[in-house]
Amino acid sequence: MVTYKVGASVQLVSRQGKEFTQRFPDLAQAVAGLGAESVILDTEVAVFDRKLISRFEWLRGRPKEDVATPPMLMAFDLLELDREDQRKRPLRERRQALEHLLSGERLILPVRRLSSSGLQAWKEVLRV
Q: Can you give the pTM of this predicted structure?
């Protein structure tokens, strides 16, 4: 999903071009409140179970007793900020800008960074 914000206007659009803004009004409102005039984010909507495992299938219809979170916007990358293309900047700089932009947000979170070492990343995921 790509998330667009220009002023107070927000759009959540799937990679196939389908509009999801009306389906997730709380997420759209959270994006509208970001401290930037314009933003384009590479995102995904997710809901998590009690073990904090994402359950994308629950976005269509989910058992309420197993849900631990409301739908949340998981941000992978910052593509544009205040009408400036960020894609030419190093990933580390984009990541820092993304984390700064989203600091304090409750419904929009940057996707967790894992170690570049495959074995260490696996241990981080498993929390070994």
A: 0.81
